[in-house]
Design goal:
The protein is mainly alpha-helical. It has helices at residues 2-41, 46-64, 67-70, 80-94, 101-116, 124-150; strands at 170-175, 178-184, 194-195.
């Protein structure tokens, strides 16, 4: 259980990082939208045009980076089977039996949203709407993780389980015959990948 508690806490922290990265992208979207408006009001102002061009570049650059990857959640190197296991482990942990049918449905939808998140080719307005929806999903998933962690007795939170090798995300989920062990290579290697 210890490795799983550590992994769940790590995942929760990384989802918080995703939210703050999304906030940073939102700032570039807001700045771009504000300068667009300013440019429409003063169409012949060369300084505003220059700022608008820069703001558009900043927004596109921010949008092109994957917030999950930046937060240390790299699913790009996973095979379909590993991704399915990773998703099943998260779902199995967050969507617990004690939830109502509607809460379960909501969380399953939230997990779908997070795994399907793609901000490429969105304009500033579309990004804002997509980010708000994703942020709500991330919050509910984090609350689900928090609820499950609160149920784990303090004795199971063994600081010794946080070793150098476990510095990355390490999810070990066991139920009946199903077993998924998905972690990431420890931080300090050239590239941090989720490994299965």
């Amino acid at each position: 259980g210890n490795a799983f508690v550590t992994a769940a806490e790590t995942l929760q922290g990384r989802l918080t990082d995703v939210a703050s990265i999304l906030d940073d992208i939102q700032e570039t979207a807001d700045n771009y939208q504000a300068l667009s408006l300013q440019s429409q009001q003063n169409p012949d102002d060369p300084l505003t045009e220059l700022q608008l061009t820069q703001a558009a570049e900043d927004f596109q650059q921010a949008l092109s980076s994957d917030p999950f990857l930046q937060a240390g959640i790299d699913t790009t190197s996973l095979t379909e089977a590993q991704l399915t296991q990773f998703r099943a482990a998260i779902t199995g942990f967050v969507v617990s039996d004690d939830l109502s049918e509607s809460e379960r449905a909501q969380l399953l939808g939230d997990i779908d949203s997070v795994f399907a998140a793609d901000f490429s080719n969105l304009d500033a307005e579309e990004f804002t709407a997509a980010r708000e929806a994703l942020q709500e999903s991330l919050t509910r998933i984090q609350q689900g993780i928090g609820r499950r962690l609160a149920a784990v007795p303090g004795a199971a939170r063994d600081p010794d389980s946080i070793t150098d090798a476990g510095a990355g995300l390490n999810v070990a989920y066991r139920a009946d015959e199903f077993e998924a062990d998905i972690g990431s290579t420890p931080i300090g290697f050239e590239k941090s990948n989720i490994v299965g």
